[in-house]
Amino acid sequence: MRKLKIIFPALFVVVLFGSLFSVSSCKKTYNTVVQDSIYHSPWTTLKMNFDSQDTLYYQDFVAKKLTAKVISNGAVLTYFGFPAGKDTLIQPLGDLNAFYGVQQVMWADTIEIQSFADLSGALFRYVIIHGNVLATTSLKNMSREQLSKMKFTDIQQAIKKTEDASTGQGNSFH
User: Fold this and answer.
1) DSSP class of residue 31?
2) Residue 7: band (very low, low, confident or very high) from pLDDT cuts 50, 70, 90
3) 125-164 burial string, b = 16+ CB within 10 Å, else e?
4) What is the C-alpha to C-alpha distance for residues 117 and 139, in angstroms, rounded to an integer?
5) H or E element: which one contains 62?
6) What DSSP string describes 74-123?
7) Whole-number Cα distances in Å, 76 to 14, 18, 30
8) Which of 76, 101, 123, 161 can bridge 116 by disulfide, Cβ–Cβ 3.0-4.6 Å?
9) What is the Cα–Cα distance from 58 to 49, expressed in whole angstroms?
10) Which residue has the higher pLDDT, 138 or 43?
């Protein structure tokens, strides 16, 4: 019994010193690399619903990367694709608004597309750009209306120019 009283404190001291050496020998590095990204959804075929009370067609999209902060400080761009044989005509929302009364309504996690015409069968894609990304690219002086009329490829090029000018860290297109 007396041996146990000596062994437990001695064992405790050995474990304590061992844990101190293992903690002090660990090298902890705290590097935080903030990499902003622009998110774009895959192309989705529209299957719009008709709202007889408001006499318009609509479709909701779950957009988990869409936050209240993005809505207030960033930009959400939407694009429509119209397949024509082997080609697809891609139009930004800003170009369709005049013809079909297309508009987007947003809240956190959701984008709703509304139109006076049934666009079912057309393709749809959205692009989410955070406010800090807008501030660090050639897009920074553009209004939301100007951004809504930009081609998808123009957005990609504006972001790529920022990537090329940096060290490879910074804005990226996902």
Assistant:
1) -
2) low
3) bbbbbbbebbebbebeebeeeebbbbebeebeebbeebee
4) 31
5) strand 56-62
6) SEEEEEEEEEETTEEEEEEHHHHHHHH--EEEEETTEEEEEESS--TTSE
7) 60, 54, 33
8) 101
9) 5
10) 43
